[in-house]
Amino acid sequence: MDKYLSSQGESELLPNLLKLTDKEAIEQSEFEGFLLAELTLTDELSSRTKFNIKYIIRIHKLALGHLYSFAGKYRTVNMSKGGFLFPSAKFISKNMDVFEEEILAKMPNKYDNVDSLIRDIALVHGELLFIHPFREGNGRAARVLANIMARKQGYQGLNFDRIDDKVFLKYVSAVQAVADKDYLPMEKIIKLLF
User: Fold this and answer.
1) Which of 31, 61, 71, 193 would be 158's cystine partner, CB 3.0–4.6 Å?
2) What is the CA angle 165-28-57, rounded to 5?
3) d(CA 35, CA 37)
């Protein structure tokens, strides 16, 4: 899997608050943080839960606040992966505002059918991954949000373990298709994971 490249040429290991220098220890700390965030948000989940920018920032802060000073803050560096350039850091705030106004704010509180829910999870998941608002943890934050969106409607979380190497390539292509506002590839993947 390709590593992220940033405009600041940072090393593979990001400076962290715990002063960890072992890659496995950092990965374990990140994993535990995201697990705790998902458990906390699932416990707090109610029919009144609103998914907005504030909620997404909270996911990131809960998950990585113990480890990184940038947790819950938009990235300030430009990033690319595998030759794909994510939106410029200087436009993240505006992109997230548009994301909230045009997508998050228009989602219903209750869904009449699972197909509509899958379509909205795909839309939110794809846009969040495409915008890539954080320095680290975007995919994991997007997965937590997808799971919480499903649980709010009475379903279990998505089975992201179904993303093997073959599906992963389609997943990456689905994120890239969001640049053209084509959400069908992501919808097919979310349906597979449901």
Assistant:
1) 193
2) 85
3) 5
Number of domains the chain contains? 1
Q: What is the CATH number of the domain that holds 46?
A: 1.10.3290.10
List the Cα angle 101/175/33 in 5-degree steps.
Answer: 80
Q: How far is CA 138 from the centre of its chain?
A: 4
Beta-bridge partners for 84? 81
Its domain, for residue 102, covers 4-193
Q: How far is CA 169 from CA 39, 127, 174, 189, in A?
A: 29, 17, 9, 11
First to last CA, the chain: 25
- Is pTM beyond 0.90? Reply is yes
What are the CA-CA distances from residue 120 to residues 104, 126, 149, 162, 184 (Å)?
A: 9, 10, 9, 20, 11
Q: What values do phi and psi take at 191, rounded to 5?
A: -60, -40
Amino acid identity at 169: L
Tell me: the pLDDT tens digits for 16-67?
Answer: 999 999 999 999 999 999 999 999 999 999 999 999 999 999 999 999 999 9
Taking every pair of Cα atoms in the chain, the longest distance, rounded to a whole number of angstroms, is 49
